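pasting for the record
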Amino acid sequence: MRFTFGPEARPVPKFGAGVGMRSDFGSNVLFPINIMGSLNKEWELGAKVDMFTYNQLDNVEASVDFGGRYRMGAARFIELDGYFGLNRNNGSALVLTYGKEHYIAKNFSNSYEARAGFLEGVTGEDGYVKFGLGTIPTLHFGKSFLCMIEITSSGSVGHLKDDFMVDIIPKMEIAFGATRVRVEFDVGVMQDDNNNQKSIALYVMTAL
């Protein structure tokens, strides 16, 4: 639930757009489409539409995310996302995010992210708030190629035992001028009734 394609500390372009596809290796596929832009050095805005397909296009559902981000310098930000189902019955949500990127060496950085989600769309019917923590060690090969490993966990107050999840997400990203192409593989490492899912995704983002 965010207007970008993932936790990123880098500034968005003056105006940009992206498309993607994520599959769970079965009949469920997600197609996200987003637009985003910067108002000035501090404020960024965006929106993303997620199209969910089930059983080989027999069932299509959609949701929309409107978000904004305030930058506190070059490497820290606070983000607020509002998530709404267009034809889904999974409820709405508000997600507050704090992120920071720290360069340990010239070609190595680490990003940190803390998130808190509210309302039924993210916590479930009986949950109160859902928290998420993540870190992304990143190797920079010049300005055109990145190798990342995102490690993220989350759990809901009120459903912590049944809802706690851990994901490990290796990513590779290559830039072609103003266009970036990212491939990522998500591995859920918890028990069967929590999160043992696996998925693969491809995203293309470009400045316009």
